[in-house]
Each structure stands twice: as C-alpha cells, then as structure tokens.
Amino acid sequence: xxxTSPDPRSELSVAQALEAALGLFSTQGxxxxxxxxxxxxxxxxxxxxxxxxxxxxxxxxxxIDQYWELVTDPRLRLNQLFAKADFPEDLEEVAGAxxxxxxxxxxxxxxxxxxxxxxxxxxxxxxxxxxxxRFRDTYGERFRDRQAAGDFGEADPMxxxxxxxxxxxxxxxxxxxxxxPMHFGMKPKEATQEFIRLLRYGLLPRPGGEHTQDxxxxx
Amino acid sequence: xxxTSPDPRSELSVAQALEAALGLFSTQGxxxxxxxxxxxxxxxxxxxxxxxxxxxxxxxxxxIDQYWELVTDPRLRLNQLFAKADFPEDLEEVAGAxxxxxxxxxxxxxxxxxxxxxxxxxxxxxxxxxxxxRFRDTYGERFRDRQAAGDFGEADPMxxxxxxxxxxxxxxxxxxxxxxPMHFGMKPKEATQEFIRLLRYGLLPRPGGEHTQDxxxxx
DNA sequence: GACTCCCAACCGAACGTTCGGTCGGTACTG
DNA sequence: CAGTACCGACCGAACGTTCGGTTGGGAGTC
Lengths: 219, 219
Fold this sequence. Notes:
Two copies of one chain form a homodimer. By secondary structure, chain A is an all-alpha fold. Chain A has helices at 8-28, 35-42, 46-52, 56-71, 77-84, 91-118, 125-148, 157-176, 188-201. The interface between A and B is large, with 69 and 70 residues. The first copy, chain A, binds a DNA duplex through residues 7, 9-10, 13, 34-36, 44-48, 50-52, 55-56.
C-alpha cells in the first residue's frame, strides 16, 4: 500500500509498455524483441522504459505475473466452474470456458512457450508443479464421495479431470495460437463434442444395451 | 543426388554444425543463438559456416527437415505400430513408442515451439495441417470395418486415435522437454495406465456387470 | 495568489558490445 | 593449377543499458 497515491501517468505508461511488450514477446520471442521496439510500439521513450523497469527481463516477468493473476481470477467463468466441481456433468461448459480463456489470453499463452525456450521454463515451473495439487484441493473430497456412491467406472476421475482440462487447453492453443485451425480435420465444436463423448464413455462398446448412437438425442 | 560424390569433410562439417545449432536453438531460441556460438560449439569458423549454409535461417530449416525425416522414418517403432493399425488394442505399445520418440527427439520437439514463436509456425504448418489426413489414410478403412463389426462404442475411433497420439506426445513433452517431471502428481507410467483406461472405458460407470476394478487382473 | 523548490516522469544521444554477414586470403586435394 | 574447404579480420547495423538534461505539477512559504 503506497503512502502517497501513485502518479496516474506512471500507471498508464507501465500499462502501455506491458501491452506492447506482450504483443512483441509473444510473436517474436524475448531475445528477438528490442527495447526500442517496445518503446516505439508503446509510444514511450527508451529512457522512460528504464525508468519504470530495471531491465528487459523484468518486463517479461511482470507479464508472467499478470498472466497468473488473470488466469486465477475467481471471476473467470472457468474458475467458477472449477469451484462448483460438477465434473464430468459440466464438461461441455468447461470446454467452452477453456476456449474463452485461450481466446482471451492468446498472447500470454505463447509467453509460456517463450519461457520454456528462452528461460528453460524458469518462470512457469511453479504453475505446472502445483497443478496436480490444485486439482486435488478442488475436486478431491467431492470425487471420493461420488466414487463411493458408484458414480464413476474404472477410470480415476482425478486423472480424468486433469486430462480433460489440459487437453482442451492444448487443443485450443494449437487451434488458435499456433495458427493451425481445423487441425483435427473438423470444426473445433464438433471435435470438442467427440472429445467429451470419448471422455465419458470411452472407445470400447458398452456391455449393456444396444448402440445408443447419441445420448443427447430425444428420449 | 549429387553428380560427384561429396567431399567427406564437407558432410562432416555440415553434420557438426547442425548438431551444434540444434542444441543451441532448442535451448535458447533462434534469435538468441548467434552464428559465433554455433561456430564455437561445432568447432568450425564463422566463414566456414557461411560456406555451407547461405544464412542462419537455412540452418534452422535444415534442422526442421531433418526432424521431419527422422519422425517419419518407417523403421521407427511408432511408425511400425501405426502401419499395423491395431488401435486401440496396442495403446500400451503406442504410449511406450511415443515416450521413446519424445526422449529421442527432445531438442527437435522444442524446435517446433521455436518455430511457432519466432516464425509464426511457418515451417511446421504442413505437419499439423496434414495430420488428420494421414490418420485417415492409415486407419480409415480398418476403422470402418471394425465399426461395422460392432468393435467400438459411441465414440469416434478416428478422433480417439488422434487424441491418444497427440495427448501422449504432449504429456511426455511437458514431462521431458518442459522440465516438469511428475506434473500429474504421479509417475509417468502410472499416469499413462490411467490415460489408457480412460480412453478405453471412459469415466462413467459401465451399465453392464459390477465394478471390475482392473480388467488386467487374473480372470 | 505568487513564488520557489523538488522530484518523479520523461527524453534521446551515446557507450561498449555483439550481431549477421562478407571477403580476401591460405591449405589441401585431385 | 583448378576448385573446394576453410579461416578470421572486418563491416555497418543494432543491441541493452546508461546518463545528463528537460519538464511539469504539487508542497511549502510568504
């Protein structure tokens, strides 16, 4: 908490610099982006950039922090779905919410790969390492109860929710960030429906009743 | 095919340069790697590098081509499994073969992300765009026959084989290339078994008999 | 209100270094 | 002696960062 309220000019400049740097880092990489480019793109001077940031890497780190804050925001639809823990009934909603996230945070997602290549993943290690634990905290109790009630089959629901989340994230990243739309040879929405069917029912035929072609059809 | 057999010195130098460049590009990125670094690492001179390659980008392109050749080599165990088209019975073998590929081609895999960031994915577009078609060519006929025979349930086997392949590839890439082992909170082998179970049987309980905890157990 | 003072915000030329790429030359091979 | 392989000094441009200097609005004083 600052004693005096900060100069609004400063906040604006920092925001402009970060926005410009995000666009450049995510499309060129860290080393390939120069401070002069960031300055030109943000409308600031090189000197001013160094007034607000101690060096180029600090700008990158601020962007990673910003991404983390954005993606953990409880107001995000995806995080509200996690909080309700209605997996796997809410798979359609989760898939849609992840598509939203990838759309909204495209350049930040690319920063992750910049980090992996140019910083050996130094800045994003914590995220991946903590992932399993966060899913356990969110879904662990609920899944135990439901498993006891016979809601699940042989597959581990904890693995399933992680696979589903990471897979949708990866799929939409390739679609939207790697610039290869339709890489499954079908519309993303169609592919998503198939992914969900696969996750719920698996590939092998179900020993019970006949082929019910689509459970979403009219009863 | 060259008219005259090439000078063996030349071939050796090119191979050394490519090997050095692969290590550097994959751990630093393209722009962050200098021709002087490649020269020092390969034991060649800068002038000699430019004798064998017209510029830095050509070295990168040669590496991408090399990756494509390696990964499409029919002698590769993974490609032999694809040729047999025994999905989904061979899921365990496929998963193991993909782990092998990721292990063997780690630095090349990272080049893909370098390409996405620093070249807008220009050099790897063809791979992703042709993916669905290649799977169709390999598995299409076989799956049609088996689907008619009732071997599959509601999920599309073509989507399933693509999901399985890409998922294993992605999972092992994060494990081995992003430097985040155990990111699912369990050993990769255990995780793989769970993935396979999920792909085969799905998450929901099967309407037939009781909970058979593990179909691999004694009959 | 007029004045001074102060300091964060801001600028851009300049520094030493490194970059991708060139080129004139030497060494070796056939 | 022709031709390929190879070398490293060299070029101009661009790099990250520094630094001396300008500016403008708020606090303090009368």
